[in-house]
Amino acid sequence: MRGPLFSLPTVMFLGALFFILIFFLFIFVQVGLITVAFSKLGLTPGQGFTLLIATLLGSGVNIPVFRSERLVPDVFVRKFRILNPQAPVEEPLQGKSLVHQTVAVNLGGCVIPVLLSLTLLARFGFNLPILLCIIIVSAATYALARPVPGVGIGIPVLIPPIITALAALIFVPGDVAPVAAYVAGSLGTLIGADLLHLATPATRKVLDAPVVSIGGAGTFDGIFITGILAVLLA
Questions:
Q1: What Cα–Cα distance (Å) separates residue 105 from each residue in 44, 108, 127, 138, 217?
Q2: What's the rounded mean pLDDT across residues 151-169?
Q3: What is the pTM (predicted TM-score) of this model?
Q4: According to the 3-state scheme, what is the secondary structure of the chain?
Q5: Is 226 exposed, middle or buried (0-12, 13-18, 19+ CB in 10 A)?
Q6: What tens digit of pLDDT does each residue of 91-107 get?
Q7: SS (H, E, C) 55-92
Q8: Tens of pLDDT along 114-147?
Q9: Any idea where the domains of the chain sit in the sequence?
Q10: Contacts of 40 (CB under 8 A, 6+ apart)
């Protein structure tokens, strides 16, 4: 009697190899789409890839701006919870007193998008239609964003890019639409989701994290994805 065509170790190896290939294919597709988005902004593939890497690495860098007078509980943030997934993300540090809340700007979610937006505006010009797009996105993201205690501002991922792309296509038709989409998606999300909420007393009461990062935490994904997807859709 003939045995099985493939042994169990062989099947497991082939299965693992398949999932690894799928994973890298997914990464290559994502990077390719992002490179296409940057090319629509007039950037070379090398410049786009450099910006992508800088943005992703910069997402973990928060630059302190000032320390407020507000006192919040000092917490220990768990970044890895594999061994105990049920453990809370944050817990008060034993024996620690209250600390002054620090307001910071995120390098990847605030500084880089703002600098790129200003560069694009200097190259293509700033006009009333682009301003209108920024106002629309700011209003939409302000309405959609919600404060998350201990974390920051959370925002849906898919709705803002659609709103941004539609605004750019309606008010800024032509070759400048992708530029308007990126600028409105980045600046509008920063203004609506972060700055306007941080200026709202009711929101500040909920944000009890030791570090409030503009463009970081919950809004980084929203800013990054909104800017990229809006360009692809525009």
A1: 27, 9, 27, 18, 11
A2: 86
A3: 0.74
A4: CCCCCCCHHHHHHHHHHHHHHHHHHHHHHHHHHHHHHHHCCCCCHHHHHHHHHHHHHHCCCEEEEEEEEEEEECEEECCCCCCCCCCCCEEECCCCCEEEEEEEEEHHHHHHHHHHHHHHHHHHCCCHHHHHHHHHHHHHHHHHCEEECCCEEECCCCHHHHHHHHHHHHHCCCCCHHHHHHHHHHHHHHHHHHHHHHCCHHHHHHCCCCEEEECCCHHHHHHHHHHHHHHHHC
A5: buried
A6: 444 445 677 778 889 99
A7: HHHHCCCEEEEEEEEEEEECEEECCCCCCCCCCCCEEE
A8: 999 999 999 999 999 999 999 999 999 999 988 8
A9: 13-79+89-233
A10: 178, 231, 232, 234
- At residue 44, the pLDDT reads 83
pLDDT of residue 6: 41
**CA-atom Rg of the chain in angstroms:** 21
| Both structure tokens of 172 | 């800024």
Tokens at 195, concatenated: 């700055």
User: Hey, what are 10's tokens?
Assistant: 């062989």
Q: Is pLDDT of 88 > 80?
A: no
